[in-house]
Design a protein that fits this description.
The complex is a heterodimer of chains A (392) and B (144).
Chain A lengths: L8 E8 L3 E2 L7 H16 L8 E5 L6 H8 L6 E5 L7 H13 L5 E8 L1 H4 L10 E2 L14 H16 L3 H15 L14 H6 L2 E3 L2 E2 L7 E11 L11 E9 L22 H9 L8 E4 L4 H10 L8 H4 L2 H4 L13 H4 L6 H12 L11 E6 L6 E7 L5
Parallel strand pairs in A: 3-4, 3-5, 11-12
Antiparallel strand pairs in A: 1-9, 1-10, 2-9, 5-9, 7-8, 10-13, 12-13
Chain B lengths: L9 E2 L8 H7 L4 E6 L5 E2 L14 E6 L2 E10 L13 E8 L5 E6 L13 E9 L6 E8 L1
Antiparallel strand pairs in B: 2-3, 2-4, 5-6, 5-8, 6-7, 8-9
The chains are: A alpha+beta (392), B mainly beta (144).
Amino acid sequence: MSRTVRGKVAVVGIGETEYYKRGEAPDAEFKLALKAILAACEDAGISPKRVDGFASFSNDRSDPSHLAAALGVDDLRFANMQWGGGGGGGSGAIANAAAAVATGMAECVVVFRALAQGQFGRFGQGPQRDVIAGDGAHTVPFGLMSPAQSFAMKVTRFMHDHGVEQNALRAISLASYHHAQNNPRAVMHGRPLDEEKYDNSRWIVEPFHLFDCCLENDGAAAMVLVSAERAGDFPHRPAYILSALSGSHYRAGASVHNTPDYASSTFKTVVPRLYDMAQVKPADVNVLQCYENFTGGVLMSMVEHQFCDPEDCNEFFVKDNLIAPSGKLPTNTSGGNLAECYMHGLGLNIEAVRQIRGQSTNQVDDVDVALVASGPMVTPVSSSIFGTEATL
Amino acid sequence: MSYLNPGLPKPVPAPDGLDSPFWEAASRDVLMLQRCGTCNEFQWGPEWICHRCHSEDVGFEEVRPVGNVYSYERVWHPVHPALKDQGPYIIVLVELPECSNVRLVGNLMGDPEQSVEIGAPVQAFFEHHRDAEPPFTLVQWEKV
């Protein structure tokens, strides 16, 4: 039992900037990162100078030494980047930070992500250059160049193999937009979605309609992690980390769409370790935040996290099952990447902490266990499980 | 004849030479894929060693350019200026059962709104761009 982070680390502060449509943030990306970190420290009631570590993912451009200098950090002890996987690194960065705290490498680590796509370019566009070499030479000249195009191919095969219908994807989108209407921070607050609007929306790439695709946003998010021994000394109810880890299956990174287990969210090998470490079962999870780059990824992630048999998707994935407070498994209760903000998924982890605290705008009753699945279909992916003190 | 409008990034062999034989062969209407000289299995994309037996004896071998549709997608939203007036197009992921089930990406020739069946047999169509600078050939696919 000593080789685990279970119960040894807690999130005691969370902070976000205002969330903006891409390109519309009034601040530089680095300033957005600072503002989120300051907000998380204020929430935790600590001086930012006492932070001694930073962890992020997806090659975040705000590097820890620069952050430490800008914040006047006294003693930087941990500077960490989760390699690869884009949004699949969200819970992985939390895992790395938790490992540092649990092993005494650092005392107070901030996990953060900052994005200003107006300043640095968009995710959803293909490369615009004269020639291309390497892996991209075998995909881009055929018009396969955006994340939606990379992942639709997997989802199509999954839906074919298991007879999944379009309405299952639609339910995931409807649930996110439903939750966003109660969340004033959500970019899509005040812009509800119904079946007809979804069905009539344009295709991006089959099987993804416009509303199956995540937003592209500017902003920043941060959380503060300390050891469980200290967690009671802060103003808010701690969210204890029951499990956080990353990984991917055999040759998940094989190039040109050659991974053997192709129609997968990449979670199959991660999930047994996740539940083992947390000592919880899927049925113990009260609320789920499940990374939506695209709804098809949510569907496959939820299957691979064992919430639904792959042959039962058409029955399970209906809006009523996915919405707070009374659905079978309330999912993406802030509106998530589809309708709150695309902060590369770290906003999902923050929403999980809010659910543990009882502070969500779509609060589920009696939450003890909240699960986050970060960044499906990439490699590596990662997941995290948060619990109240009662779960320890 | 070009399936997609011109203007997308043009493929060139990797500077380290790893996939050069593939591109050279395609210009001659030949499909060559990487095969291990020790365990005789194919792998794709190309790697410097065999992922199965770790032999460095990996070379390229001519194969029959036939396969089956493993998955596909119809793209509607252009994410590159060259595709602004393209309209829908179909990308297929083709599995080659005769080559250790490696997969290749290409377009499916013909009506972009045609129906596509997973498992359908396809054969390669070598789409030459001889006047491009630099010239290149795309390995495309058509229904058998």
